[in-house]
């Protein structure tokens, strides 16, 4: 990944993309390429990466490094697709302990740009909404997400599913890899019981990993790739960054932690 030096005169809040982290090496390489795409779209913006767990750099180390280089402020944008414990607790608590001024942006979903990426990945995998009414009545999509015990995460995933359904013109049913139900196989069986046997799985994961692989394996037909380096994802990260800065026009960034 390209290094981007900082200096004391650079007073723009840095963009820190906060990824979950994964044992799958493809995840880290995908996230790094996504950040490079963000840099192409906004070459004057300092862009950095921090992980919640499993991969370096960890978020506290990234924030400490920014502070050591004289960066005064940062906007933390979760590379997460719904609200949940990481967005509501882990990331804000880490930000509050940093020495520089911080603001935590909203997660990436729900949002029309996220639906753009989901739709594009499904199309790349071969999905076409049938023009024939009978074939359409037999069609549906399962939106496969990571899952969370937080009810707001389910609300966000449900909203993303509804936006995608509006785009596709067929039902889209949320399903989860862990911590929530239904699972992808359960959703597929429920759709089959309603006469919908032409079912694709839309992978609502930012990068490859165990959950994405398991959900794709449960697809009875088409399964889309993770969202990865799609340009809509890069644009969405920048949108959340800009949105957080607009909020800071009326509310200041969180103050640096006391020494």
TrEMBL record:
Q: InterPro entries of this UniProt entry? A: CbiX-like, Sirohydro_Cobaltochel/CbiX
The record's annotation in SUPFAM superfamilies points to: Chelatase
> Entry's Pfam families?
CbiX
Recorded GO molecular functions are: lyase activity; metal ion binding
> Superkingdom, according to UniProt?
Bacteria
> Which terms are listed as keywords in the entry?
Lyase, Metal-binding
Q: Which residues form a coiled coil?
A: none
State the name under which the record lists this protein: Sirohydrochlorin cobaltochelatase
Q: Give the organism, scientific name.
A: Streptomyces caelestis
